[in-house]
Structures are given as C-alpha cells and as structure tokens.
Amino acid sequence: MIDFHAAAATLAPDLIAWRRDFHRHPELGFQEVRTAGIVAAHLRGLGIETSTGVGQTGVVGVIEGRGPGPTLLLRFDMDALPVTEETGLSFASLHPGRMHACGHDGHTAIGMGVATLLAQSSQTWPGRVKLIFQPAEEGLGGALAMVRDGVLEQPAPDAALALHLWNAHPSGVVYAQAGPLMAAADRFSVEISGRGGHGAEPHTTIDALFVAVQAITALHSIVSRNVPPLATAVLSVGSLHSGEAFNVIAERAQFTGTLRTFDPAIRALLIRRMEEVLAGVTAAHGATYTLALADHTPAVINDPALAALAAQAAAALLGPAQMQTAPPLMVAEDMADIFQRVRGCYLLVGAAPPGGARGGHHSPRFDFDEAMLPVAAGLLTAAAVAYLHTPPSS
Questions:
Q1: Per-state percent for the chain, helix, strand, coil, to nearest 5
Q2: Which of 32, 77, 79, 367 is catalytic?
C-alpha cells in the first residue's frame, strides 16, 4: 500500500507555492478564469483528460485506474470573497476588495496535489476518479451550475468526497462523522408597505420603518418559542433599509435575512410562522407585506458508510488520536446539492494557524496553517483509493 501521507509531504513546497499564488490573485464566483486555467494546465500536464467551462468556469478531470471499478467524485472549490484583506501576509491579495477569506485557495492547491498523487498511482487502483474544481461556492450556486452542465454524467459517480480546511479547529485534527454536518440555508427578503408622510404628522401615516422594527423583533422570537429545544434552527435578520430623509416617515421598508435548519419539517415550521407573524404585525398597524425566499441550499448529510471509511483512512494516516467529532455547523455548503444526487462524505481538517486564528472564516484577517495542505492532500487521496478498492454499501 502506498504511503500517501509521505508522498504528499514531498509535494509540500508545490502545494504552498500554488496556494500563495492563488491567494495573491483571488477571483470571485464565476470569474475564476486565471485559477481555472492554472488548474486545467496542471491536469493536462499530468496526462489527465480535462474539460473546462463546466458550470461557466469549472474544471473537470477524469483519471482512469488500472481496470473496471467504481467512479468516485472529488470536489474542490476555487472562488474568493468580496473582502478587503487585512492579514499583512507577504502573499496578501493584490486586488483590493477581493480575498481568499475561507481557504478555497488551499482547497484548489490540495486538489492539484491530489490529482498528482492519483495520476502517479493510477495503475494501483481500479475504477476512476472524477476531479471537479468548482466555481462560485460562496452563495452563487456553482455546484448546481456544474450539475446542470452534466458533471454527474458520463461517467456518473457512485460516491463523492470533499473537504474543508477549518481554522476554528486544532491543526491536524480530522472530523469525519456520519449524519448532519452543515445546515440548510435560505435567504429571505421582506418588504413592508405603509403610507408615508410628514415626520411632524405621524398620525396621518402608516410608518413602514416602525412596522418593520416590530416585525423583526417578533420574527426573532420564532426559534425560541416555536422550535423544540432539542432541535436546531437559526433565524437572523442581516439588513434593514428604509427612508431617505430625517423629516419624512417612510412608506416602505425592506429587510433581509437567513434561515438555517437541518430538518425539513423545522424549515417548514419557520416559514409558516414567519408568514403568520408578518401577517399579524402588519395587520395590527394597517400595513401590508411580501415575503420572498431564495437560494435554498440543502443540509450536508454525510453517508454513514462513507464517513466510516474516511475516518478509518484518516486514523491509519494520522493516528486514531487525530480523529474527533464536533457539533454540526450552522454554515452552509453547496456540496449539499451534489450530495442530494450522489451519496457522499464531507471532511473537516483542523487548520488553526500557529499562535491561533486572528480571524475566522470570511474575516479580512483569515488565515490557516499551511502545514495542513499536504496532510489534507494525502488524506483525501488515501480515502479515495480505499473507496475504489472496497466501496462500502450504504
């Protein structure tokens, strides 16, 4: 059996160089032209059959093994965030307003390392691996864009694996656990309509801003007073916009927010209660409302058999002490759109930088421990090869 941990360690200088180059040149969702070009050139240089422009800017590579066997999909996200970097790193973003603030630069480098290891070892394992380098994971629907472009066809994968460097967890600790890992997410927007007027004559108006504030306060009570205490849900309002002048009572107010759930029944409960609360509050003040939901991302639910396989691979590489479990995260991940169609497992690799994280994910001060790049590459390669040799049943 190949020691993929040791093999990946020899790639560490390349992995770090790739990551730092991507970090200097971040590209937002569906704009990853430079990044995709570097990835595609690397895959083709390894002799891997490569397709570009999948899901607009995505890249797909297919590596054939020594003979018939299952098809495994491995996903790596490439996009950056609209954040101005404040890390002070020597390889900080050269583009104000754009930053790799979530580790996708590392994921892309890891994917290139995994491609190298799998190409070098392809005559030792059966089946095939479909590598997908995905654009626009950060809320723009990149996974669905690739699905619509046929990424789950010709060949259709039997299973899928993905990972995320996580700087809130200790470096080197791996989380491969069955069941819910990341929450479903919905974006909602509400518009309140009233009757505007002079700020000195509020009795002649229906103050949309005042009604919106009352509605927001009431909406924030839904989780605490409607969701069972042992269930999990989040309802957060993130923006409120109303009015243009200090002496004019606003006729309209708009606010937006997010829902996070694991259970579809809890999600349905939240939406029903939102409608009821908004209807009641606006009626009490003589206003009206509209509620719209968009950008639904399902929950990431790990297949138990694949989670066990990945955990065994991680324990064999890193030692059982490095395997842990953690409470599910309320963040969302559009790998869930693939897991809705293909059973899979999503791994978290602890990557807290030396001295501790100065900023969490999506922070302008975000960074991670680069020593985890070869660890993650070796881990995902080992898990992939273990699956190809002995694919577990569901």
A1: 35, 25, 40
A2: 79
Count how many residues are written for the chain.
Answer: 394
pTM for the predicted model, two decimal places: 0.93
Q: Is 367 in the active site?
A: no
- Which CATH architecture fits 4-181+299-389? 3-Layer(aba) Sandwich (3.40)
Give every strand in the sheet of 184-193, ordered side by side. 233-242, 252-261, 184-193, 288-297
The packing angle between helices 104-120 and 12-24, to 10°, is: 140
pLDDT value of residue 394: 63
- Pairing assessment for the beta strands 184-193 and 288-297 based on DSSP bridges: antiparallel
Encode pLDDT of 13-28 as tens digits.
999 999 999 999 999 9
Selecting from 3.40.30.10, 3.90.650.10, 3.40.50.1820, 3.30.70.360, what CATH number does the domain 184-297 have? Answer: 3.30.70.360
Cis before 155? omega within 30: yes
Active-site residue (options: 27, 32, 85, 137): 137
What are 351-360's pLDDT values in tens digits? 999 888 789 9
| Domains in the chain: boundaries | 4-181+299-389, 184-297
The β-bridge partners of 323 are: 174
158 is catalytic: no
Q: Which of 170, 175, 115, 174 is nearest to 369 (CA)?
A: 170
| Beta carbons within 8 Å of 245's beta carbon, 6+ residues apart | none
List the one residue out of 72, 80, 182 whose CA is nearest residue 132.
Answer: 72
